[in-house]
Amino acid sequence: MNAAVREESVIGLDSETDANQFLTFMLAGEEYGVDILRVQEIKGWENATEIPNTPDYIEGVMNLRGTIVPIVDLRSRFELERVEYSNTTVVIVLKVKSGDSEKTIGFVVDAVSDVYNVTDEQLKPSPDFGKSVSTEFVSGLATVDEKMLILLDIDHLIDANIDVSPIETTH
Amino acid sequence: MTIDMTQFHGVFFEESFEGLEIMESELLELVLNDPDIEAINKIFRAAHSIKGGSGSFGFTDVTNFTHVLETLLDEVRAGKHKLIQDEVNLLLTSVDCLRDMLSASRDGNDIDKENVQSIQNDLERVLGNDSPNETSSEKDNKENGNSNENVQTVSDWGIDFLPHINLFQTGNDPLRMFRELEEFGELTAEVNISKLPHFDEYDVEESYLSWSLLLKTDASEDKIKEVFEWVEDDCDLTIGIIKKQETIEVENESDKSPEAGVATGERRKSEDRRKATDRRGTASSESTSIRVNTDKIDALINMVGELVITQSMLSQFSEDFDVGNIDKLCDGLKQLERNTRELQENVMQIRMLPISFSFNRFPRLVHDLSSKLNKKIELKLTGEATELDKTVMEKIGDPMVHLVRNSIDHGIEMPEERLAAGKPETGVLHLNAYHEGGNIVIDIEDDGAGLNKERILQKAKERGLVKEDEVLSDDKINELVFRAGFSTAEQVSDVSGRGVGMDVVRRNIHDLGGVVEIKSEEGKGSTFTIRLPLTLAILDGQLIRVGNHTYIIPLVSIIESLQTSRDHTKSIAGDAELYRLRDEYIPVVRLHSVFNIQCDSKKLDDGLLVVVEAEGHKVGLFVDDLLAQQQVVIKSLETNFQKVEGVSGATILGDGTVAMILDVSSLIRLSREQSYYEKSPVLNIQAA
């Protein structure tokens, strides 16, 4: 009992109170953050197997120790210009909630950046751009060390959009 | 058709013993005043399954006995009968009796028919008592749970039981007899330990104790004597009626001295309850074990042994490495490769079995049922080679039996009715298994009467499942048969009709992550379709190449592969391509254009045509090259992604990369839709 309390306080010291930890990565010069608890692993880029007739941003599927994991190219998901994958290109494997189930999906990003503690005060809601910019997958913004982080709501990132079937039969 | 049914006996016995354990633990947990419906359902289902199984395997004694047991349980389940403790005990005895019967059947011994008959009589007595209860005394029963006993004359019996010293050597157990007595009524036992020798002289195989028993019961002297029938010659026994006042005195006495080795019923119950809770701790929820032949395990252990040897050999090379040893190293690596492959194959083999294992028990079932019901039924089995996970198969067995019994009992009509309806006299029951779209599909199809929608709806309204004025679609009505306690059979037979099953069928299938659907046309028959995900299924596949993509075609759907020649291909309207394969024309499906990928060459002469068949359609798949043939483990794409048209799943190849497994039937569909889609813009332009 005592040990447990002590342990808790140690953890409490380590991470600031009511702070959320975010893993950040670079994408076209901007720094994005995702909830670190959703990150399953980070791995280097390997060739993925294409899935026929899927949207462009679905890079394919990869073998992650026996599990088939779809890979999403985040640049093309955000309709950014595609670049050649380099040796800093990594796949961040995230656990994404979709309905009742949890799916494991890999996201290709330019590079992994850092881990930040973001307190609730530092969190700001994302501004309303109106209809011109789709912000449904941005959960908020945060300023840490004079830098702006774009925090992503990963559940919305693939939500519904993954179901786009490329062939629309006109009957 | 002769099939050696004994090969399935093991499974049946295991399942039945599991069922008995469930019954026992549920019975012991049962709260009499407020019984848990789910618990009673569980007990009932277990009994039902044992009955069904024993019926299929021809253990008629077990079937007959369980039928009585089940009928009683059904009354309880329907709320027509309220259980009292004595009856719970009787049910427990029945469970014990069933266990003995099953063990005897398994070991080829004779069943103790007398014991079975006496318990069966007791059960029937309880059932018989029931009928007046239903109408008049049901209320009384609720107010006074003992009314049953009060009606009959209860007398107190005093029994002095002095076993001879050699009682145990004859295989008798006083405790068992006391338990038997306890079923007659309230039992108080007092032990006499005066003859117990000094510890040094104590012989565990000899009996030194004697008892004086007090039994409050309505049972006759004969009944009580029957209990002691086997020990008559090995003991001194006196049985007599004691007067009421004396009884009370004795009772008080025994109450005062509870430490004196009083084996009252209470203690036994609490012990049993404890046992039940213990068991619950270990066997809670679904048991996750699978039954594996020990030979297979031995083989695996051998292989792992070899693997370890190879590994140590290789690590020795790495320690003192010398270029001269490179040949040996290569040999070692080859050996490692072989070991690993063997190990992998064997591990997969443990889990995968052809569905024929499950199908094979149906011919006998159909034969027996049809002769019992005087129906003429032909059983067709197809797709028996379809492999599926062993655990899935074990769990799908019971639901399938239920569905088959239902089809035979309710679906297929009597020969006269069939003739009158203009159908052939013999009904056809068709079991079919196949892989489709990442699932394994099992169809159970009959050409019987189909579901009677009106009757289902009427029954549902009677039972309050559907409101009087509710209007339901046909599918919704069909769905109703999956509701608990729903049966439209006019007559409850031991085949089916109790309305158990369908809800269990659906639940079991849902537990496996599958679905069950009904298609039914009145007068024409019904089809039950079970769809199960085949996450773990393996498949013999042909690897093919298109451009730099590797795909896998299930070997079962490939008819042949051939090199095309120009004069055999025809194109219609410059668009649809046909290939003349001997006497028939088959459409050509270009995989690269269906999947929108790059290929080596678009000229048919450069590639190969793989002739595949699905759902009765034959097409030629145009691919660049054929690669190896191998067994692949099917991995679902849906777990982390979604269903992909034309692809039934994915697999991981030897080099760790992922390859898609093609779903031929949806591929054919896809190619048709695409050619339609490609054409339609042209038409639109013309219209504009």
Task: Note down, in words, how this protein is organized.
- The complex is a heterodimer of chains A (171) and B (688).
- With 171 residues, chain A is mainly β.
- Chain A has one domain (20-163): OB fold (Dihydrolipoamide Acetyltransferase, E2P) (Beta Barrel), CATH 2.40.50.
- Helices cover 13% and strands 45% of the residues of chain A.
- In chain A, the strands form 2 sheets. A 6-stranded mixed beta sheet of chain A has the order 8-1-2-11-10-9. Chain A has a 5-stranded mixed beta sheet with strand order 3-6-7-5-4.
- The longest helix of chain A is centred in the first third of the chain and has 13 residues, at 2-14.
- The radius of gyration of chain A is 18 Å and the shape is globular.
- The N and C termini of chain A lie far apart (67 Å).
- In chain B, a hairpin with a 2-residue loop joins strand 18 and strand 19 (617-623).
- In chain B, helix 3 runs parallel beside helix 5 (113-143), helix 4 (85-107) runs antiparallel to helix 5 and helix 17 (453-462) packs across helix 18.
- Chain B starts with 5 loop residues before the first helix and ends with a helix.
- Residues 131-152, 244-287 and 679-688 of chain B have low confidence and may be disordered.
- The chains are: A mainly beta (171), B alpha+beta (688).
- The interface between A and B is medium-sized, with 26 and 29 residues.
Total E-strand runs of chain A: 11
How far apart the termini of chain A lie comes to: 67 Å
Which class do the helix and strand fractions of chain B yield?
Answer: alpha+beta
Counting DSSP H or I runs of 4 or more residues, the number of helices of chain A is 3
Main beta-sheet annotation of chain A: 6 strands, mixed
| Beta strand % of chain A | over 45%
The level of helicity of chain B is 40-55%
Named at the architecture level, the CATH assignment of the largest domain in chain B is 2-Layer Sandwich
Based on DSSP secondary structure assignment, what is the total number of beta strands of chain B? 22
* Sheet of most strands of chain B: 6 strands, mixed
The CATH superfamily of chain A is known as CheA-289, Domain 4
Q: Name the overall outline of chain B.
A: flat
